[in-house]
Amino acid sequence: MANISKILIANRGEIALRIMRSAKEMNIKTVAVFSEADRGALHVRYADEAICIGPAPSNQSYLKSDKIIEACKLTGAQAIHPGYGFLSENANFAKEVAAAGLILIGPTPEAMEIMGNKLSAKAAALKYNIPMVPGTEEAITDINEAKERAVEVGFPILIKAAAGGGGKGMRIVEKATDFEEQMHLAVSEATSAFGDGSVFIERYVTSPRHIEIQVLGDTHGNIVHLFERECSVQRRHQKVIEEAPSSVLTEEIRQAMGKCAVDVARSVNYVGAGTVEFILDENLDFFFLEMNTRLQVEHPVTEMITGLDLVKEQIKIARGEVLSFKQEELKISGHAMELRVYAEDPLNNFLPDIGTLQTYRTPKGNGVRVDDGFEEGMEIPIYYDPMIAKLITYGATREEVIERMIRAIDEYDITGIQTTLSFGKFVMQHDAFTSGKFDTHFVSKYFNADSLKNDSEEEALLAALTAVLLLKKEDKISLAQNNVIANNWRKNRKKYS
Ligand code: MV4
Asked: What is the DSSP letter of 37?
């Protein structure tokens, strides 16, 4: 069994803190690395030791594998947790870490390499009987041949970049006459974005739900799944709300998807935490799309419904331990939801909104978990991902979790920057969401800035009414009382209208 008494966390923000907390509970020392922009960051303060690895831009700091490995040598850390993003799915980094005699808390470089390419991922999965969207199994080399295949598969079709991920380099083709042109565009896009112009085609599933299965594999060949996460509420391939379990899966489909996910993982002898991504069509048929070889942003919803700590499991696996539970011992209890709180303006096309957190107060109480990496007064750096926190609610039923999420959003007090909290509330109150009848087009179908503006107009009206009330009363009234009046009015407005 490998000795791990000190871990270096090659990441920043909420996920760095999230990892350190689990390490601490396991009596493992932590080393933070940070860029010059993150000197005062919480992950730096939380860690037992911290090392500056370069200037703010991530290609000069958080992506510098040599600096990170050097920091391990300097501090005596035996293992590296890469978190998500940055170097987490970089097979070359995984190789460098191993060559330096260190442990990467994650899968093997081979598994990363295969799953890093959608075509090799599908080829590996073919060893098992995994449902896949009809299309081409190899990169397209001959346009006419590909066009014939597209006609066979049926339009609309989707051209995907083999090296792409998260929706980058995808093009929908509606009809055969557009095929050639779109093909050329896709190849040149893929070449400039990924340095690899390989593309393939799939039938386009027009109204899919995005459902993914969490898996865990140990170094002894045991692989289990931890059920699904529903991630259909996203915009521009950026997830905003995730939940577990999905409200559409039957126990039978859940089991079938879970088995497929375990098989996909087995096809590359998967070790560690990973996620197998599927789309589910209107007939509830599911198809394997790709596998993410990292701990994902949305892992907390799985933790809430299984009672497991995925970071602890990752560390135990890295130490060489045997998984301490069998598939049959795992079950779903309750329901969990996550809202990603981005520093973005939902009224302005979700443009990143940088600045200082003038007020920052998190919601508390039963069934609420906030994974964040900031404090009041801190500035959101422009160099990195604009996600400031994850708001997770947990409860007995989906209804309770939605009500709790709305309560938590109302309690969350952030000023100084615009956030996606208001958008989250919009979703929680939308019939398509509450009824569970939604797909990956939810945001483009139902959301526009006006849906939130109504809310702010209502608040403006409220302020005006309060002012009138105050004038009429003519006695001195404190700001606090003013708020009480406003809140009471808000609560009772349905009765008044
Ligand atoms: C698809 C699809 C429809 N048909 N493949 C987007 C991200 C990448 N992982 C795969 N994606 C899709 N692949 C076929 N054959 C629709 C999507 C898709 C999508 C998938 C999951 C979550 C959100 C999405 C938003 C738009 C499109």
From this structure: G
Query: How many separate domains does the chain show?
Result: 4
Instruction: Say yes or no: CB of residue 205 within 6 Å of ligand 1.
Output: yes
Question: Is 294 among the catalytic positions?
Answer: yes
> Residue 173: CB within 6 Å of ligand 1?
no
Task: Identify which of 133, 171, 213, 279 to mutate to test ligand 1's pocket (most ligand atoms within 8 A of the CB).
Answer: 279
Neighbouring residues of 474: CB distance < 8 A, sequence distance ≥ 6: none
The distance of Cα 445 from the centroid of its chain, to the nearest Å, equals 21
Answer whether 234 contacts ligand 1 (Cβ < 6 A). Answer: yes
Hey, is 324 helix, strand or coil? coil
User: Above pLDDT 70, what percent of the chain?
Assistant: 92
Specify if 116 maps to a domain.
Answer: no
pTM: 0.92
233 CB within 6 A, ligand 1: no
- Residue 464: per-residue pLDDT: 72
Distance 429 CA to ligand 1 centre (A): 25
Cis peptide bond upstream of 381, omega within 30: no
For the sheet with 157-161, list strands across it: 171-173, 157-161, 199-203
275 CB near ligand 1 (under 6 Å): no
Residue 26 sits in the same domain as residue 99? yes
Quote the tokens at residue 110: 């081979």
Average pLDDT of the segment spanning 464-471: 70
Q: Which atom of ligand 1 is nearest to the CA of 234?
A: 23
Instruction: Determine the Cα–Cα distance for residues 438 and 280; give it in Å rounded to an integer.
Output: 12
**Do 11 and 63 belong to one domain?**
yes
Nearest CA to ligand 1 atom 12: 167
**Span 157-182, pLDDT tens digits:** 999 999 987 677 799 999 999 999 99
Range of the domain at 194: 134-203
The 10s digit of each residue's pLDDT in 16-49 is: 999 999 999 999 999 999 999 999 999 999 999 9
Q: For position 293, what pLDDT does the model report?
A: 98
Residue 496 confidence (pLDDT) above 70? no
Per-residue DSSP letters for 226-252?
A: EEEEEEEEEETTEEEEEEES-SS--HH
